[in-house]
Design brief:
The chain is mainly α. The protein has three domains: about 55 residues, no CATH class; about 90 residues, DNA polymerase, domain 1 (Orthogonal Bundle); about 140 residues, hpI Integrase, Chain A. The protein is about 50% helix and about 10% strand. It has a three-stranded antiparallel beta sheet, covered by helices on one side. A two-stranded antiparallel ribbon has the order 3-4. Strands 6-7 form a two-stranded antiparallel sheet. Helix 2 runs antiparallel to helix 3 and helix 13 packs across helix 14.
Length: about 325
């Protein structure tokens, strides 16, 4: 072992073995270099052993010799918990759940492009086009993030083994048809939830054109009786007062709590069972809002303030609705 390693054969394959010390205990890891069928002589696998040992010497850390699962559980996720948004962490958790059965048992520093590609291929072999292409891309991104972090800490020799992998043609590319709730459907939802927190959540989605972060940041004190003030979680940092129309005002005057979309969605899914209503997502309440405001008889100038669009655009939209024969539909008292 003058080179710091030894080459031996076992079960028809060539292996390289070396010594490592962890907690004052000597271990002798090994790595398969190739088949004796393809490399009959020891001299033919010597360059392979040299190349592999160069990567080992580059990553002689305790974590580099651990499994990918150990690194992900003890280092990767604890680190990103303090640096990334909850939504991003959730995507990584989902991606790792799919990748772990195929990569988790491998030694961290040993993972190469072929291993990541084999993991992605194995997932596709099971799930096929039941998953969208974007989900397979999320799996690739998850692998990239894990090994990028390992490289930064010196636990993987690089390059990133995700870089050469591919999910081309994996998964479907069709997206769910954009759905929009009509004014009549919104009335049906509010008939199921005439008051309370779920009704408030539906009303805010249906009658104010708020972005999701703005909706989540909204507090009861932002409603003054006639307007809702938007001054948190805005992309532009704007401070705006949006007019509250009568159907929404009736929902807000009795008091409400900060919005929890997840809880409201759970309640709605349970209540609409056995009805003709389908869940199309929260954006379906906001999509087509100009049409619903027109049918409620809201003036173009007020609709422009609610939608945060120019009065000229809203007037053109209203004109098309008038020409199509739509009539204002007064909300019942």
């Amino acid at each position: 072992m003058s080179d710091g390693y030894s080459i031996f054969k076992s079960g028809g394959s060539w292996f390289v073995r070396w010594s490592e010390w962890h907690d004052r205990k000597r271990t002798q890891p090994s790595h398969r270099l190739g088949s004796m069928k393809h490399y009959p002589r020891k001299t033919e696998v010597k360059p392979l052993a040299e190349e592999y040992m160069a990567s080992v010497r580059k990553t002689q850390t305790v974590e580099a010799g651990a499994t990918v699962k150990e690194f992900v559980d003890t280092t990767f996720f604890p680190k990103i918990k303090f640096t990334l948004a909850k939504g991003t962490i959730a995507l990584y958790l989902h991606g790792w759940k799919q990748l772990e059965p195929h990569l988790g048992h491998l030694r961290l520093r040993d993972v190469r492009v072929a291993d990541v590609q084999a993991a992605l291929d194995a997932i596709y072999a099971v799930r096929g086009n039941a998953l969208s292409h974007s989900i397979y891309m999320h799996h690739k991104v998850t692998a990239s993030a894990i090994f990028s972090h390992a490289m930064r800490l010196g636990h993987h020799p690089g390059p990133n083994p995700e870089d050469g992998s591919s999910v081309r043609s994996y998964g479907h590319t069709g997206h769910r048809e954009n759905g929009a709730y009509s004014l009549q459907e919104i009335k049906q939802f509010l008939a199921l939830f005439p008051s309370g927190q779920v009704a408030v959540t539906i009303g805010l989605n249906a009658f104010l054109a708020l972005r999701e972060p703005e909706l989540r940041a909204l507090l009861p004190e932002d409603f003054d009786g006639d307007h809702v003030r938007i001054h948190r979680a805005t992309k532009t940092g704007n401070d705006e007062r949006l007019p509250v129309i009568a159907p929404l005002k009736r929902l807000l005057v009795d008091g409400w709590e900060p919005i929890n979309l997840r809880k409201a969605k759970t309640a709605i899914l349970e209540r609409i069972k056995g009805t003709n209503l389908r869940w199309l997502g929260w954006y379906a309440f906001r999509r087509g809002m100009a049409t619903n405001l027109f049918e409620l008889g809201v003036r173009p100038e007020e609709a422009a303030l609610i939608l945060r669009n120019s009065p000229e655009v809203i007037r053109r939209h209203y004109l098309k609705l008038e020409q199509s024969g739509k009539k204002a539909d007064a909300w019942p008292a």
